[in-house]
Structure formats: structure tokens, C-alpha cells
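Chain A, query sequence.
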Amino acid sequence: MSAERVRWGILATGGIAAAMAADLVDLPDAELVAVASRSEASAKEFAERFGIPRAYGDWASLAEDADVDVVYVATPHSAHRAAAGLCLEAGRNVLCEKAFTLNSREAEELVALAKERGAFLMEGMWTYCNPVVRRLKALVEDGAIGEVRTIQADFGLEGPFPPSHRLRDPMQGGGALLDLGVYPVSFAHLLLGEPDGISARAVLSDENVDLQTGALLSWESGALASVHCSIVGGTSIGASVTGSKGRIDVPDGFFFADRFVLHRDGRAPEEFVAAPDHGARNSFRHEATEVMRALRAGETESPLVPLDGTLAVMRTMDTIREQIGVRYPGEAN
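Chain A, predicted structure.
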């Protein structure tokens, strides 16, 4: 890694990998040097599209490429444990897309492996790196709305998705919770930490993945969070945080927010809007920038997306899945 540029590898060639590649190309201190897929043809096509010099038809070759400073793992989450683990074993630093893994056991294994190898590891929870969300968190922590009483957050897609789609495929960790629900759950964790109580219900598909899930999270402080996710109904994808002295509303797209409104008792509403250089709402650049900052600082995890926080989110989703009866192939009984 040079002082000027961080060299990136991308593992997988799907839509989310392409979105990250497009943002990395636009970052002056990032350099895309390699891509890997299980298909050499797919890797070569991706490399040509983004001007990447090396294309590998297997994951191991990318993991063993010593010219790669950090690998972005963009496979379906069912493959995160294997893909990220392979890279960590080879000494590569890793940014692993959300949901971090299928379950907390796999997450703990990756965290332990990263610590053993002294490698950097971070979940690709771009929400935590978003400047607007960071501002919202700071206001809550500074007491702008008093003590947090309730959080509401939802993420639903209209669908319908056919049984062959990855969101319906148990082999790929399908269902609403791991793909979409991770955002409302993570938002609640960001502001209140790991909940003390969880109560969940869901509607399951014929494949036994969750079509929609709702959960009530509770804390000993008395705070409650209502979180919902769906792949059978489009929601506002909004969030609201209510405190003893006010409320913050994120009208839509809370997980990549570009604005929110602060309501405080006795004051006119205040709107907070992203700075002009904030970038597109779907920008990966904030998390990529945080990864590169951490690598240059010699850190093995990010204070914005700490590994303990990622593990806590995975534990919460494990409990939700246990309550709604969703288990994926290969998971221990």
C-alpha cells in the first residue's frame, strides 16, 4: 500500500460489485487492481468494463495476490464466510458486504481469524459511514431529543420475486431479514446498542425463507424499536427516532440518508441536508474512504463499524430467525 493509493480487489462480479467498482474508479486514492469470479469469462468481462488489469477465474488467486491491499467481498451472504475466510487466511484485509455472514457463529469465526492474522476486517454497513447518519447519531448522543424512547424503521420491496430469485433461495441465505432487515436492525443498534429483549413474527415462503418479518426490540432503559422488512410489499423505507424532548424523522431511504428533520419541543423543525459533495444516495465511497483511512492508520477495524457491533447485530438476527423458524441449509441444529 502506498501513501497515495490503496489497491483494491473485488471478489464477485454481480450488481453490488459493479456499484462498488464504479465508485472506487472515481476515488483518486483508490486503485482497482484485480477481480475474481468463479467464472473466468465473468471476471474478464468485469475487468474490461472497469479497466482492471488482472482477472481471476477463482477466488484463491485473488486471495493470494500480494499486490492487493484489501478485498471487497460482494458474493451473496451465504458465501461470505468462505470468501472472506479465504482472503483472511492469505493475509488480505477484507471489507465484507452485509449481511456479514449467515449467522453469528460464522461471524465470530471471521473476527477470530482476522485477529489471528492481524488483518483489517469490516462489514460493509455503509449506513454507519454515511455523513448524514453520523450527524443524526451525534445529535442523539448529545441529547438533542432527550432520552430515546422509540425507534421505527422499515425496508420493504414490492416484488414479487420468483422462487428462483436469490431473495427466495435458501441456498443463498434468501429472505427479507438478512438482505433488507439488517438495515433497520443495524439502525436500532447504532443508537441503542444490543437489545435486551426480542419478539418477532414473520410470514414464510414455500421455500421457508421470510417474505416479511416484524420484530419488537426492547432495552432495560425502557426504549423500544419496531423494525420491519419485506420482499412482498414496498414500504416508505423510512425511520423515526423519538425521544423525551423531540423526534428525528428520516423521510425515506434512511439506510443511505441524504437528509433528516429534527423536531424539538418548542422549536421550529430543522432540516439537515447532505453537503454538496456527499455524493449519490447509493454511493459506496464513504465506506471505501473509511476503509482506506483505517488501513493507512494501521487499524485492524473501523471505529465507525466496529466488529463487536457487527457481532451484536448478527446475534439479534439469529434470535429473530430462531423465533420465526428460518434455518438455512448447512446450519447446525
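The mean pLDDT is 96. The radius of gyration is 20 Å.
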